[in-house]
Amino acid sequence: MIDIRTRDVFATMRPDLQLVEQRLEEAARIDYPDAAELILGLVRAGGKRLRPLILLLAARSYDYDRETLVTAAAGVAVQRGVPCVVLAGQVSVGRREAAAVGVDAAYGLADLSRDALVALAERVARRWGR
To answer: Residue 63 CB: number of other CB atoms within 10 A?
Structure first.
């Protein structure tokens, strides 16, 4: 059950949190349209935004540069909330080796048809878009 005060905090911080979301979406735009679409889907799935909210709330007590803080909050979301999913032409390491360097999952894209790529994007979004 959400306490009324919690709802008020989210309502008050909504403009700053929307800027964080915009920063995350900007970072997801890359030169590979199919991969960019997949990454953008993961970002838009939301979740894991408590740390950015805490950072933004703490800064309200001080004189701060909003743009710098929003960028930092987006960085916190990426660092702590968005899984590291690698999309590569070919994956040459196993799951244990990937996990040892902070990669949650790696998917090979070589020789995938457009339909197979779309199916992979849907599967990855379902698994990692929580």
So the answer is: 5
